[in-house]
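Entry type: protein chain
Record version: 2
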Amino acid sequence: MTIPSPQPRTTTTTHSVFAALEHTFPAWEINVSRHGMWSAVRVQEPTPQQLAAGLLPHIVRRSRDDLVATLIEQLLIAQGC
């Protein structure tokens, strides 16, 4: 699967959003494509145990809110591994 190219972070608001997301979810590299698709890729590849528990290596969602909801689910899975 190809991850969309990240959109340039040009505005202060956009920079603040990315900073907050990356601070909240440090295990993920977060981007938004020029088409508006939000993605996150794990900084470290999940272990077989984590994959079996449902941890994903990458996520693509249509909105920031959808991505955040999925990242929260992933955080809960990671804490249980």
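Comment: Residues 12-80 form one domain.
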